[in-house]
Amino acid sequence: MVPAIRIPASAASRARNLLRTVQYTHPPSCPCHSNPSHHHHHRSPTLADHVRRHMATPTDPSREKEYAFEMAASSIRFGPGATKEVGMDFANMKAKRVCIVTDSNVSKLDAMKQAVEGLTREGIEFTVFDKVRIEPKDSSIKEAIAFAKPYNPDAFLAVGGGSVIDTAKLMNLYTVFPEADFLDFVNAPIGKGLPVTKALRPLVAVPTTAGTGSETTGTAIFDLVSKGAKTGIAHRNLKPTLGICDPINTRTMPSAVHASSGLDVLCHSLESWTAIPYNERTPRPTNPINRPAYQGANPISDIFSLQALRDTVKYLPRAVKDPDDFEAQSKMLLAATLAGVGFGNAGVHLCHGMSYPISSQNPGYKHAGYDVDHPIIPHGVSVAVTAPAVFRFTAASNPDRHLAAAEAFGVDISTVKRESAGEVLGEALARFLSDLGDQPLGLKNLGFKSGDIESLVEGTLPQRRVLMLAPNLNSELEAEKDELRGLLQESLVY
Amino acid sequence: MVPAIRIPASAASRARNLLRTVQYTHPPSCPCHSNPSHHHHHRSPTLADHVRRHMATPTDPSREKEYAFEMAASSIRFGPGATKEVGMDFANMKAKRVCIVTDSNVSKLDAMKQAVEGLTREGIEFTVFDKVRIEPKDSSIKEAIAFAKPYNPDAFLAVGGGSVIDTAKLMNLYTVFPEADFLDFVNAPIGKGLPVTKALRPLVAVPTTAGTGSETTGTAIFDLVSKGAKTGIAHRNLKPTLGICDPINTRTMPSAVHASSGLDVLCHSLESWTAIPYNERTPRPTNPINRPAYQGANPISDIFSLQALRDTVKYLPRAVKDPDDFEAQSKMLLAATLAGVGFGNAGVHLCHGMSYPISSQNPGYKHAGYDVDHPIIPHGVSVAVTAPAVFRFTAASNPDRHLAAAEAFGVDISTVKRESAGEVLGEALARFLSDLGDQPLGLKNLGFKSGDIESLVEGTLPQRRVLMLAPNLNSELEAEKDELRGLLQESLVY
């Protein structure tokens, strides 16, 4: 409508204003404007030129802060009974050959029955892989990939919890990149962390638990046994095409599973809400394809994370206590998906970072209500057990956000000082966990002793992808170790 | 983990609970359970069976209410300077031949320069179509399509406002469906309203205004001159692959454009927030591909709509009054996108429904600050002018939502009675419009007279797609006409 704004007018004020907003690190008076090679000097440079020029020629790329965030999420269909539509979805996308991915438990449930009936009704060829391992290992992932490659499906359907959906994402990835080495895409520094440069095949995810939010994210987590570390593969292209969230499918969760899955949702929302802001993350990627999905808190992820937190605080206790409370169960499935969009685009930090060694170094704890033949610390439990200590620690980075979180727990923050934000939120979390019932209030109740802390610290350090988003964490290694030690120590009993 | 829940146990309570939640219309005690042909009778039916059976065999499909909602949005990248990344995006998606779509004004702006430089830097072949008409007509759309078809690009890049992005969506659609008749996809009843059964080619949208949110929606609006109606094409598959929201690009908007674009955002958020709930919409689609994007308010669109409303009330006045307030301009660009996700998945209703005849039957009004050679009622102005009357009218359908909206305008609702919700919100809106400045406070100021109301009503009636989402509107034609007359009458002066 009008020509681009010219600088001279009220240049200084405009520039200061703009530069403040983009959190730009150079001094307002900068050499480039007197640089004869400035490719815009045939006309007075615009603010856009100004900012862009600096972005194009940073003084030290590795120290340039991020200036943009990218929001990507799967399409979500939510409704009781929606599972029966999945056959039509594959017909609509002209799929001819579908690989259904599930596990031996879910394969007996009604959700699988609906999926199979749906594809059959549409006359679509399919095969079923039902050997997904709960808490997948690289070996179980590779077995799944070996199944998918020769079948070479043109679409995937995952029916199950996070382990099933994550495994399906990787079956899809390595079917599209059959020549790739497994470590090529695994998160650095453990793997090469290469970006996924091709679109994958359609993947429809039908969650049967309300926890991981995997139906909306581009993340897949597994145990890399060879390296003795819990790691994963994360890229936007991994995210499902469509997540079908059918609350009828989560009714089959026992109360204990409702509880631990819900605690995962609680930490997804709290960690993404409190993660460092995206524009404090370094380095700024030189190609947008290298912008991580775990990019730090941003104005869109914030909306999802805070809403998911409020819903979890309100509905999780009801869903756990009353197996007939379908409304609470439905709200928790929605909260899990909202939190998935939140942390899927912002990331998680300390609770998740420490949860990996906590569950893999399990001294022998078997969580009540879990019908398995081996010791197990459910993911949600291993994540939540450090939460009170973690948010006491991170509060100083952003007291207002921690107060808002405390408020979500029903705390009247009108009289709380900002310096008490961590205390108040930590207390609210501890109370929430103990009120929920059947939760281990501290690592000691999981069988850990002070003597185990050092190896838990060592097991946490490789989780750079999430630790880099931890607010307040010291970047110097020894100091960082001390802080992790302190958090684990404080999490022994509360 | 456990077998599907069986009915007998506490069947009644479970059923009531579930049925209440799905807003299911049959009586809890229903014949199907005694029906020998019930295909699940080899075992006691689960709740899933129960619900699904009714969904599979509704007594009267046309009267069955919706039971699911689907949320789809473009990926969004937001950040000052992000426009320069667009060349790499096309390189990353392996595009070889890109059609850039813009208009004669935007083609002179820095955003276009960045787009062209980006593609050139990556050595990607492209051509530019810069003849997009502001407020497109079917003729201008067809001219654009005629340009795109022979070039047959493998990707599209739209740089401009809503008119540009909408036109690019349709160039993409008819390039992928070269044999289709133009009316095939146009919204019924004016067109055939066929669903888009194929994925379209990648479309990256770079908005240069903060208003339509078209970068996130599957909607394209235009004047169908032959039928004398403003209509459009709407399907999820039309939505851009990626929206690049670069606040530097909206700095070129004159204050008057900030204002009217922002009023469009205001109504997108208010109308989607107050639209009928998705699960009150009928009929329930028999195939998910027929589930409209304008599906009614739902728990996810609500989050976006309310946030966009709050941000608009807070930042639009600043963005309009101070051309140097880059923070307010940035927040408005984000609000426009958030509102786009909200109404793109919930819909709009009365303000938009009446805005189409208001702008097309313009008696000769030329909005101040618009540098055009013909009369023009900017879209945002034509939408907002009826807002005070509309929300006074719709409040009875859901007083709490209207009170929440009034609260977003800073009204202390603690003492307001629910029956006064409409009064209070209408008043807050009128005050907001007059405080914004340079706004016509009523249709009279646009040159309309009482005698024009009948033809405005006639021009509104064909907008079924949005009127069907209007809460409180009488479904009987004559009564509906009376209500529209009343709203327009009330909007003459305030």
Automatic annotation (TrEMBL), chains A, B:
Its main location: mitochondrion. The keyword Transmembrane does not apply. Keywords: Mitochondrion, Oxidoreductase, Transit peptide. It comes from the Eukaryota. It is an enzyme of class 1 (oxidoreductase). It is found in: Mitochondrion. Residues 30-63 are annotated as: Disordered. It comes from Aspergillus cavernicola. It catalyses: (S)-3-hydroxybutanoate + 2-oxoglutarate = (R)-2-hydroxyglutarate + acetoacetate; 4-hydroxybutanoate + 2-oxoglutarate = (R)-2-hydroxyglutarate + succinate semialdehyde. This is hydroxyacid-oxoacid transhydrogenase.
